[in-house]
Amino acid sequence: MSARVVLAEGDITKQETDAIVNAANERLLAGGGVCGAIHRAAGPELEAECRRLGPCPAGEARITKGYRLKAKFVIHAVGPVWRGGGEGEDDRLAGCHQSALELARAHGLKSIAFPAISTGIFGFPAERASRIALKEALAWPQALPERIVFVLFDRTAYDTFAAALRELQSGRD
Length: 173
Description:
- The chain has a 6-stranded mixed beta sheet with strand order 1-6-5-2-4-3, with helices on both faces.
- The two termini are 12 Å apart.
- It contains 5 helices and 6 strands, in the order E-E-H-H-E-E-H-E-H-E-H.
- It has one domain: Leucine Aminopeptidase, subunit E, domain 1, CATH 3.40.220.
- By secondary structure, it is α/β, with parallel strands linked by helices.
- The chain is globular and about 45 Å long.
């Protein structure tokens, strides 16, 4: 389908993309996992800017500077907490990916790196989340961003996303 969607295993804070996506909580403040790692790597200025932005509901995203990161921007995408799948979790997860991509486009960014949003402490099933995230990236109709990278922290997450990507690209949706 699209050569602009790629997978990588590693540390999202080290990505040399125009923006990295933070798997944020609604308060946009430092937490655990990816969110905590991004805040630590970016420095205290990121936390200060996030405090001024205020809350962000699940399914939406906000953008800040990248501060000490290689990425110029951080896009804070708030994914849903998994509650069994009957409370609109799929739509909110798709929405936070769409919102992040729209912010990247609106800011003229050529590249963006996503983590596996909501699959950690928020409990979203990884296989389901990978299909939703990749489907949004593959269907993104805009010219920007030109490159969408999913940076997976470990081999298990990478393999889950790789299987979903193969399936989606083969049309076995």
